[in-house]
Amino acid sequence: MNLKQELQRMNNRLDKLRRKRAGAKERGDEAIAAQASEEIETLTKKLTKVKNQQQRQLAQKGTDVKSLPFKRALTKAEQADMGKLKKSVKGLVVVHPMTALGREMGITEVTGFAPKAF
């Protein structure tokens, strides 16, 4: 399972458990509320581990892209015809500043990274 999907699944489960705990407390059922609280704690720990793993993967991808020898900002015309650009430049990686990778790398404009000058 993909990390993003697993993260979403865990968040959904956590939300259900929180509602279950709130309902149990409202009814005065302390046993179920305590059980839900324990499950929430374990799920929160797992969620933290998955988020850290996702962050490490993103950082690794960022270093891989930064290690490419050539980079430059893409013009509006190149951005408009991205298919043509990617066909003409082998190994081109385009990073947008609003994506998770772009924020991780700290770029401010759409940038192309490639093994050779383009």
From TrEMBL:
Key words of the record:
Coiled coil
Which NCBIfam families does its entry note?
PRK11020.1
Regions annotated as coiled coil: 7-60
Organism name: Photobacterium atrarenae
The protein's name in its UniProt record: YibL family ribosome-associated protein
The protein's matches in InterPro entries, at most eight in alphabetical order, are given as:
DUF2810
- Record Pfam families: DUF2810
